[in-house]
């Protein structure tokens, strides 16, 4: 049984809480929420979960906590992860791991030093279509990967507590907050980036809020990734990918709602091959966030090291997104 402290009660914390509630071998025993209004709303929904205004006090009083789930704004990830690791707690930290490579490295080091597991919430690594597509690539079903395109297009987020997400100093802008999902997916499929070139557009607060990034990988595979939150009007939340291999193509696209709240209703993943009929590929329909939380809990329960969405993966994703940002700022190709 794992006792969990949930940090934050905002958008992604609510998604995680549902994931924790589904498990019989984990329980959220405390929540850290400094904002009184947010805490009151949370208490109305979950009156049995004690709320703390101070994380240090939570750690002091709730000694039974095994896991800290960091669902706080990105600029706070390092501070709270380091404090949790120092207290000997395992950490699930939302993506992006941090705003800088230094911060992400410090978090990975803290976990190593204190002998705890640190997993980063790169949910696409648990998302049915992305998982199955990568498995098929690894099995060689489409031959050698020549190119991967992926996109993630959203309206400007207006739900974040105190609007922190719109300030690039706190969120890193859409390139770190949103685009990073697909950069991580490209790295997961293609390996370690070699060269990165990106062009983009800044949003009203000066952050890079729309990005078109080209990532070159050893062996010749290239990824074209587009993402941002400058979409307007009723433009539906859009995400998808197309992986072109020497012997086939995997393609998936999803369009719905304004965020990912309608993620249950999805299109099929298709496999195309020369001389063969287009094939619909069955995928897991389990919610990615639930799967991610169940996987982390099972690693801890079975004393197995986390192997998916590791701190190293989170760090590589931050490096890639920051290289894309540097390229947009300088107009130059960034060699990794
Ligand atoms: N994996 C995903 O698909 C996904 C989706 C959304 C968000 N996220 C990530 O999760 C993290 C949280 O995002 P969110 O959308 O839940 O944010 P949110 O604004 O909805 O919630 C933030 C929470 O942190 C609390 N908080 C504590 N200190 C704060 C401070 N100084 N300023 C503002 N809020 C403070 C807020 O009260 C709130 O409970 C971010 O890193 C974000 O990038 C990941």
Short description:
The protein has helices spanning 11-21, 36-45, 55-61, 77-86, 101-114, 128-138, 168-171, 173-177, 179-190, 288-301, 311-330; strands spanning 2-7, 26-32, 51-52, 67-70, 90-94, 118-121, 145-155, 195-202, 208-216, 222-231, 237-245, 248-256, 269-272, 279-281, 334-335. The protein is an alpha/beta fold and 336 residues long.
Mean pLDDT: 96
Which structural class do you get from the secondary structure elements?
Answer: alpha/beta
State the CATH topology of the largest domain.
Dihydrodipicolinate Reductase, domain 2
Q: Report the helical percentage.
A: 25-40%
- Domain count: the total is 2
Spell the H/E element sequence: EHEHEHEHEHEHEHHHEEEEEEEHHE
* Regions with little confidence, pLDDT below 50 for 5+ residues: none
Strand order across the biggest sheet? 14-13-12-11-7-10-9-8-15
- Give the terminus-to-terminus CA distance: 42 Å
Structural key phrases:
single chain; 336 residues; alpha/beta; Rossmann fold; Dihydrodipicolinate Reductase, domain 2; nine-stranded mixed sheet; six-stranded parallel sheet; 11 helices; 15 strands; 35% helix; globular; binds nicotinamide-adenine-dinucleotide
Describe the structure.
- This protein has 336 residues and is α/β, with parallel strands linked by helices.
- The protein folds into two domains: 2-123 and 290-307, Rossmann fold (3-Layer(aba) Sandwich); 125-286 and 318-335, 2-Layer Sandwich (Dihydrodipicolinate Reductase, domain 2).
- The chain has helices spanning 11-21, 36-45, 55-61, 77-86, 101-114, 128-138, 168-171, 173-177, 179-190, 288-301, 311-330; strands at 2-7, 26-32, 51-52, 67-70, 90-94, 118-121, 145-155, 195-202, 208-216, 222-231, 237-245, 248-256, 269-272, 279-281, 334-335.
- The chain has a nine-stranded mixed sheet. A six-stranded parallel sheet has the order 3-2-1-4-5-6, sandwiched between helices.
- The termini are far apart.
- Nicotinamide-adenine-dinucleotide binds next to helix 1.
């Amino acid at each position: 049984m794992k006792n969990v402290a949930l940090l934050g009660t905002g958008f992604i914390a609510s998604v995680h809480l549902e994931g924790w509630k589904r498990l019989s071998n984990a329980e959220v025993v405390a929540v850290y929420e400094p904002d009184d209004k947010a805490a009151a709303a949370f208490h109305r929904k979950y009156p049995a979960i004690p709320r703390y205004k101070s994380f240090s006090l939570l750690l002091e009083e709730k000694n039974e906590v095994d896991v800290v789930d960091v669902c706080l704004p990105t600029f706070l990830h390092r501070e709270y992860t380091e404090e949790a690791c120092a207290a000997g707690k395992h950490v699930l930290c939302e993506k992006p791991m941090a705003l800088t490579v230094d911060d992400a490295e410090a978090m990975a080091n803290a976990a190593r030093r204190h002998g705890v597991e640190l997993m980063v919430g790169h949910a696409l690594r648990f998302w049915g279509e992305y998982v199955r597509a990568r498995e098929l690539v690894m099995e060689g079903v489409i031959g050698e990967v020549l190119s991967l395109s992926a996109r993630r297009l959203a309206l400007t987020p207006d739900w974040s507590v105190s609007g922190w997400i719109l300030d690039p100093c706190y969120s890193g802008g859409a390139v770190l907050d949103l685009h990073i999902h697909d950069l991580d997916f490209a790295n997961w499929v293609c390996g370690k980036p070699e060269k990165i070139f990106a062009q983009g557009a800044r949003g009203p607060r000066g952050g890079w809020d729309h990005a078109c990034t080209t990532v070159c990988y050893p062996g010749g595979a290239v990824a074209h990734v587009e993402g941002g939150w400058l979409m307007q009007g009723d433009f539906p939340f859009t995400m998808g990918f197309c992986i072109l291999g020497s012997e086939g193509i995997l393609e998936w696209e999803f369009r719905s709602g304004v965020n990912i709240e309608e993620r249950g209703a999805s299109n099929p993943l298709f496999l195309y091959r020369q001389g063969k009929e287009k094939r619909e590929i069955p995928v897991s329909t389990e919610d990615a966030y639930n799967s991610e939380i169940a996987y982390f809990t099972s690693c801890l329960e079975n004393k197995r090291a986390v192997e998916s969405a590791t701190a190293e993966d989170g760090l590589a994703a931050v490096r890639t997104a920051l290289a894309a940002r540097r390229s947009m700022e300088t107009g130059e190709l960034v060699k990794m």
